[in-house]
Amino acid sequence: MISYSQWHSIRQAAKDEHLDALERVGITTMESHYFYMNEHGFSGYPSYLWSHHGPSAGTMALRTRYGLLQGKVPYETLKFGPTGERIFYGARYDVNGTNFIMFRNLGQRELPMRVAVSGNPELELFDCFGNMYTETAVDGEAVLQTSTLAAYIRLKAGQSVYMIPLDMGANLATTANFSYSTNFTGNLEQLNNDIFETIHPSNPHPSIWWGAKSPEKSETLEITLSELSNIRGISLFGTRADNSFSALLDFDILFWDGTDWALAEEVRSTMPVSDRVRMSDHTAQTWYLGENLWLIPLPDIRTDRLRVVAHRTTYGFCPDEIGVEAQINSWGSPNDQRWHIREVQIHGETATYVDNAEGAQHR
Ligand SMILES: [Ca+2]
Questions:
Q1: CATH superfamily of 2-163
Q2: Does 283 score more than 50 pLDDT?
Q3: Which of 25, 91, 212, 224 measures 20 to 30 Å from 116, CA to CA?
Q4: 204: CA distance to ligand 1 center in Å?
Q5: pLDDT band at residue 130, thresholds of 50, 70 and 90?
Q6: Is the pLDDT of residue 36 over 50?
């Protein structure tokens, strides 16, 4: 019997992103092996709707997806602009003459997405569990909330929906220098090498930078840009909390205002505290949703130095102390708090950037 110390129930519902990859190469739901015939199956893809372990969020999400998309593969994957490409995913489906758009973000708990709407301004949407809701475009534009869970637009006759490209400027981090306030593993140059390192040993980049961190003390990643710049935002690309890999939960963004460090943004996770439960196979129900990237707008900041101050991370796959308690009960020892980062991007323009009348760009 497979035994789990905790259960990422809601995280299961985001696992259908694996289907995005399969469908893009033409493998339909009916040809894949995501449906298991017993209560457990593989933990990410159980086939039951309800058991003595509680509801299976993953199965409900897969049933919604199949109910709406009928096992079709997308005929087009969507473009989201130079900043949005690594943040969002979406695709168009033709389901027997009815057009659907499936959309999600790739690792942020909540993130708005702008779409252009023509024809009927009222959008008919479904969340990943099949709940229908509507959003109405104003002056041809609607802002849709995204998460790691898929959502769907069912287009009405004559209605067109296009993603509004997200472009927050150049990536100023490519020439930045990094420092960290305590021990770390890997090289700081990994943070801006434009490579998204993975954990897989067969990958040419199988090692991810991580910074040590204790629960009692915040730690700081400092980023020094090559010159004074006008900042529009920062993107932090981490890893999903899994085994010993840890994700950021609470952190601050600071910037050097010329005389002191100033607070630019407080980022706090809205993840609920885990629940202690008494199930046959686990003792903690957790609410981690696969958070592994953070796009933080920082308009109107002019600086050459930024800090990311990490206050709280997951303990590997355990999001909080209740998860850790369950892990100790089951495995005997906990994971440490730490944070894994694959890439940092700073969005904006250098202060000396000029866009001249001919449209040529020079400094
Ligand atoms: Ca990297």
A1: Golgi alpha-mannosidase II (2.60.40.1180)
A2: yes
A3: 25
A4: 12
A5: very high
A6: no
Q: pTM of the full predicted structure?
A: 0.85
Q: What is the C-alpha to C-alpha distance for residues 284 and 307, in angstroms, rounded to an integer? A: 34
**How remote is the CA of residue 168 from the centroid of ligand 1, in Å?**
20
Cα-to-centroid distance, 207 and ligand 1 (Å): 9
Q: Which two tokens stand for residue 265?
A: 């943004």
232 vs 16 pLDDT, higher one: 232
* Spatial contact of 187 and 209, defined as CB atoms under 8 Å apart: yes
**Are residues 224 and 305 in contact, defined by beta-carbon separation less than 8 angstroms?**
yes
Band (35; pLDDT cuts 50, 70, 90): very low
pLDDT tens sequence across 189-210? 999 999 999 887 788 898 999 9
Compute, in angstroms, the gap from residue 223 CA to the centroid of ligand 1: 14
**C-alpha 105 to ligand 1 mean position (Å):** 20
Q: What is the C-alpha separation between 88 and 111, in angstroms, rounded?
A: 9
Is residue 265 within 8 A of residue 280, CB to CB? The reply is no
Query: Tokens 């949703």 map to which residue?
Result: 289
Cα–Cα dist 49/39, whole Å: 9
Q: Would you state the pLDDT for residue 17?
A: 76
What separation in Å is there between the alpha carbon of 293 and the centre of ligand 1? 13
Distance 314 CA to ligand 1 centre (A): 20
Write out the residue limits of the CATH 2.60.120.260 domain(s) in the chain.
170-356
Question: What's the mean pLDDT in 236-245?
Answer: 92
Please tell me the CATH superfamily of domain 170-356, with its number: Galactose-binding domain-like (2.60.120.260)
Q: With a cut of 80, say whether residue 339 has pLDDT above it.
A: yes
How would residue 37 be classed by pLDDT, with cut points 50, 70 and 90? very low
Beta-strand ranges (E) seen in 83-139 are: 88-95, 98-105, 111-118, 122-126, 132-136
β strands within 96-208, DSSP E: 98-105, 111-118, 122-126, 132-136, 141-146, 151-154, 160-163, 170-171, 177-180, 184-185
Which tokens is 159 given?
């209605």
